[in-house]
Amino acid sequence: MNKTLDVPERKLPAASEVLLEVKDVKKYFPITKGLLNRTVGQVKAVDGVNLSIRQGETFGLVGESGCGKSTFGRVLLRLQSATGGEVLFNGKDIHSLGSREMRKLREEMQIIFQDPFGSLNPRFLVKDIIGEPLRIHRKMSAKETDARVVELMELVGLDASRRNRYPHEFSGGQRQRIGIARAIALNPKFIVADEAVSALDVSVQSQVINLLMKLQKELGLTFLFIAHGLNVVRHISDRVGVMYLGKLVEVAETEELFAAPLHPYTAALLSAIPKPSPRRKQERIMLEGDVPSPANPPSGCRFHTRCPFVQDTCRQTEPLLKEAVPGRQVACHFPLLPKS
């Protein structure tokens, strides 16, 4: 069952309550060398990120491969431990919780993985994959679990009569729906969708995106939506954060960011989006050079080695993420402010 769902036009969530607050979060991976595995450096995958996500919104996170998006999402769920900083979920720092408290909290925080096949155990029947969190956290009987699995499969647009089959018997889009059903099984508040549609065909992407938006409306979910596809992010997100080399460089409401980016890196990303009309002139901003290594990031602004507007200040002083215009944050000494 792959019917495209009708979804109303997106509006910003009425609730302004902060569900998740991130304070100066860092995640470093050690670089070891020699027989004794001496630490000789660190890969700074996430390096001092500050962010808040409101209840009921979808926060889109974009950036080039290797910028730290997926690592950041895993740190938010404590699938990887933070090197420093705080992740406050409903006011509690999840990285300071004990194993028992964290086990309880995992019911409220879930993830949808990028690979719709590799994230599903090929030896499990679909009913066992979806029902596993119910057996572990809710201690449901086999009959209760099966009834809930049927309900979840119907909710995500799957034929529940196929629950006794294996993942390889489903298409890629159907497998991702299975992953979504597993993620919402415990009625969580917050879900990290880590490149949840990037491995799917374009036609299937739209169906899955519509499904996520429908579930958000019906279940009151909050999403961190990590993606490469800027058009997809624009369609689903209330606000967007742009990440470069482990740091946020811009945060804004979606339409404001797409209409007038403030950071040169954001402007370069948006200029790469194909325009629907071939007659419409498209000015592409070409970035020179490669992305620097997160093991040895540049001094000052990390984007200065590729920025077309670089000045001496950019090479020497790191810009802070701060409000440049009302409601918009940018980490740039010379943001692309709209002309008055």
Query: What order do the strands of the largest sheet run in, or round the barrel if closed?
Result: 6-7-8-3-9-10-12-11
Described by its quaternary structure, the protein is single chain
Discrete helix count: 10
Order of helices and strands: EEEHEEHEHHHEHEHEEHHHEE
- Given as residue ranges, the uncertain stretches (5+ residues, pLDDT < 50) are 1-10
Distance between the termini: 51 Å
Describe the structure concisely.
The chain is of the alpha/beta class and 340 residues long.
Keywords, please?
340 residues, alpha/beta, 10 helices, 12 strands, globular, disordered N terminus
Topology, element by element:
Blueprint (H helix, E strand, L loop, with lengths): L17 E16 L4 E17 L3 E5 L6 H8 L7 E6 L2 E2 L5 H7 L3 E4 L13 H13 L3 H14 L16 H13 L5 E5 L7 H18 L2 E5 L3 H7 L2 E6 L2 E7 H6 L4 H8 L40 H5 L5 E4 L2 E3 L10
Parallel strand pairs: 3-8, 3-9, 6-7, 7-8
Antiparallel strand pairs: 1-2, 1-4, 4-5, 9-10, 10-12, 11-12
Helix pairs in contact: 3-4, 3-5, 4-5, 5-6
